[in-house]
Structures are given as structure tokens and as C-alpha cells.
Amino acid sequence: MEEDGSIAGNDNDDDPARFEPHHERIGASDQVQIYEAIMKTPAGEVTTGLLQATGYVKDNRITPKGFDKERADPDVAVHGEASGDPSFAGGRDEVVYSVDADPDRGPFEVTASVWYQPVGYRWAKNLEEYDADEPAAFTRMYGQMEAADTAVLLARDAVVVERPVVVECPEPEPEEVEIGE
Length: 181
Fold this sequence. Notes:
The chain is α+β, with helices and mostly antiparallel strands. The protein has 3 helices and 7 strands.
């Protein structure tokens, strides 16, 4: 979480025309898994405007246990890359974190945090363009909050990796196959 309430690595917080994709694997510091709905206009542009939105370019909000994403009604379906992620199903998701590290520099502590942010930074920032009392009051209050107050930490865990394990699989030897009549 950045000082202004934006999320480090979130493409949408950096640029309102982009969004952070659903990830099955995170392997770079500029990637972050964000479970959210991202709406689109009829032209396919990313929007936070409810009146301009006609669909979703991404909707990877965690589904309820027992939810079948293959048979879901389009109004509540999973949209975007999460729809093809086999581990994103029935109230859960698995994300693989892969980091290049020199094994001689360990041990390494890996920390993962799960945050809940009811109003995303981009949603709040996009309200600044409206010339009306309600959005002005909301953005004024949002701007006065400390970044730590824009989100709630739900869970955090850490593990110490003493020495990273590198597994190299040898290439299989080609087999000779005779094709007969």
C-alpha cells in the first residue's frame, strides 16, 4: 500500500486506461494479484463510470464455495483470464510466486498479505472529474484519510526459506517408433 492509498504494482492505479490482469504466477515486483471487477465501455475501454459500463473486461472476485464458473449466468460470471485459470474455482485461488534469487544469499523471508480495500484508489480518483457536491465531498474525505485507513489487513503470513530448491529435469531421450502396416 502506497502513501496515497494506491497499490504498488497495480496497473490501474498508475493508468486509468489499464488494469492489473489476473495472475496464475507472479514473477516480478510490478505484479500483484487483485481480486476485483473491472468494467468496460461499449468501445472496450476501462471505466469506473457505472453509467458508461456495458460489461466486464475482468471479474475475478473470489466466488462462493460451490460456484460453477463454467455454468454461471453471464451477469455473475467470471470474466477475463481468471475464467481459464483451473485453480480459480469454488471460493479459492492458487497463485504461484516465483523469485530469482542467489541461493548463497539466503535465508529468505517471504511475506504475503491479504488486504480488503472497499473503495479502490482509481475509483476514488476518477470521481474528482465530476462537478457535483456528492463526488466532491467524497473525494475530499477520501483525500484526508491516511492510506492505512483505506484498506483493512485480513491476513498476513511469512515463511523463512533456508535454501531455495532448484530442480532441473533432464530432457527425455527420444524414442524410436516403427510404424508398420
